[in-house]
Amino acid sequence: MVSILRRIARRMGFVHRDELAGKRSFAAGNISRLTSDWIFYPTSADSDVRAGMQVIRSRARELTQNDPYAKAYLRACRKNIVGSEGFALQVKARDSSVAPDGRIVYRLDKFANDLIEQKFYDWSRKGICEVSGRFSFRKVQSMCVTGVKRDGEIFLRMLKGSGVNNYGFALQLIEPELIDERYNDILPNGNIIRMGIEITPQRKPIAYYVREYQPSLGWNQSQQSGGPYVRIPASEMIHLYDPERVDATRDVSQMTPSMLRLKMLSGYEEAAVINARVSACKMGFYETEMGDQFEGDGKDASGNPIMSAEPGQMEKLPPGWKFNSYDPKYPDQQHGPFIEACLRGVAAGLGTSYATLSQDLSSVNFSSIRAGLIEEREEWKEGQVWLIENLLNPVFANWLEMALTMGAIGKLPLSKFDKFNAPKWTGRRWAWVDPLKDVEAARAAVGAGFKSSTQVVTEMGGDLEDIYEEIKEESDLAAELGLEFDFKGGGKDAGKSDPVADGTTEENPTGPTNGLGKGNGKGNGKDVSANA
Question: How would residue 214 be classed by pLDDT, with cut points 50, 70 and 90?
């Protein structure tokens, strides 16, 4: 009876207050016939990952093998996060001393810093840093970026000991399928094995269970089902992944949001190309009013008639036959905009720009490409910071500890590990879109005291100390050979022609003390040897 009265009231324009309360809630929370297929029950991150990990990983690999846009995305990630030179290391170990006024002064230990940098560069070469001897450390970084973007994760085992190499430290790359996601258990000590990783109730990783190598499987190690497993302590492993939920033990491909669209787009392009090719070859068909059966140019394996299609193909018409032209007019004018719209969605899901993904610059102008590049480069820099925090810093710390233990870095003592463990990494940087204006802006910022010369050079991907040393070497070499050049690389004569730009005045002809090319105020004074 109540439901009948409510229906009558609704027709008369009255709405029950319970229904009005529902209207005031979030629209995304409403369940109706239009949203009934939209998931509305909560799931854990691990349950989602476990359900789709293997399939998504396999499909992501297939896409990057065969789809040009997926391949271009991985290439862009490697080029912009790691780059052709990899990350540049600067060690910033400092010694402290007490100034006459009681202040504590920190000075860079140049001797120790240079020595550690030289030894790390030597270890980073191909044949030393990676246990198989096939990869340099730059290549290891590149493969890690590829693995995380494509597979969602990658593992590195840190091998230590005198038998590894002169530094007692090397890396072993492990693909994610060797950590069995189907291995789950509850241990007597209260720990949990979740998708091949042993964790505490607080989700701290304790160990990783890696499938043992099975010679009988040959090339199909990744298809191994179950154990036996090798338990590797978490202190010897680096698990590289970038989870978006706090309870995610493992992760899926970062390409996941765009994979289905890429696959559908690939199928559409294939059909469009085949259609265009056939329409370009087949000019038309022959018809007869006699009702004769079509015989074609032969039959396939199932007995169906087939016809050949060759460019400009024409045949003589027998009596009673007429020609009917075939012109599908496809791909049409909407083909290009449709492809572009699809790729824009793909690019948004991948976190890159449409221009980078498609290599299509036909619709951009200076302002739009500048804005797009700035936004995209922030994405690359975020990836660089992630790689520094999760790979470079842990690798450097473990390498340094073993190298000091092995006595591979001169006479630097292990007791000063905390002092020497002060790496600063500089990732790849990009050319300015408008170099002249950007240089003028940087120079003005330094002159006004808003930035230091070190900051400006670092933003350009350089090292101020290296630049100054190169300028001095060039100047000394020119003087030795009796040559004269106008060296203005931060020297005392730099910028005199523009007193406004460099901040010089008649009262202060040398410009501000924090001007471009002056001291950076960071205590780069007298060097103190680490052996002192």
Answer: low
Give the residue among 157, 133, 134, 153 at the shortest CA–CA distance from 145.
153
| Helix (H), strand (E) at residue 398 | helix 393-406
Cβ(422)–Cβ(176) under 8 Å? no
Tell me how far apart the alpha carbons of residues 250 and 199 are, in angstroms, rounded to a whole number: 12
Query: Which tokens belong to 253?
Result: 């491909």
**Residue 205, phi then psi, degrees to nearest 5:** -65, 135
Nearest to 489 by CA among 453, 447, 525, 441: 453
Residues near 150 by beta carbon (within 8 Å), at least 6 away in sequence? 60, 61, 64, 74, 253, 254, 255
CB hemisphere CA count around 115 (13 angstroms): 20
Mean pLDDT along residues 9-27: 61
CB 234 within 8 A of CB 244: no
What does the alpha-carbon distance between residue 122 and residue 350 come to, in Å, rounded to a whole number? 36
Q: What percent of the chain has pLDDT over 90?
A: 49
Quick check: 348 and 262 in contact, CB under 8 A? no
User: Per-domain residue ranges for the chain?
Assistant: 1-41, 46-58+96-241, 285-325, 433-532
Of 272-276, 296-300, 366-370, minimum mean pLDDT range: 296-300
Cβ neighbours, 10 Å, residue 438: 15
Going 309 to 312 to 315 to 317, the CA torsion angle's sign is positive
Determine the Cα angle at 291 with ends 288 and 296, to 5°.
Answer: 70
Pairing of strands 237-241, 284-288: unpaired
Q: Give which of 451, 445, 450 is closest to 464, Cα–Cα.
A: 451
Digit-coded pLDDT (tens) for 131-171: 999 999 999 999 999 999 999 999 999 999 999 999 999 99
Confidence (pLDDT) at 153: 97
pLDDT at residue 436 is higher than 50: yes
> Structure tokens of 252?
């899926």
Indicate the DSSP class of residue 484.
Answer: -
In this prediction the pTM is 0.77
**Cα angle, residue 139 at apex, residues 134 and 145 outer, rounded to 5°:** 130
Number of CB atoms found within 10 A of residue 276's CB: 14
CA-based radius of gyration for the chain: 33
Neighbours of 246 (CB within 10 A): 7
Nearest CA to 501 among 436, 447, 434?
447
Question: Which residues lie closer than 8 Å to 238 by C-beta, 6 or more apart?
Answer: 155, 156, 157, 158, 390, 391, 394, 395
How do residues 385-399 score in pLDDT, each as one tens digit? 999 999 999 999 999
* Residue 116 in this model has a pLDDT that exceeds 60: yes
Q: Is the dihedral angle over the CA atoms 184, 187, 192, 198 positive or is it negative?
A: negative
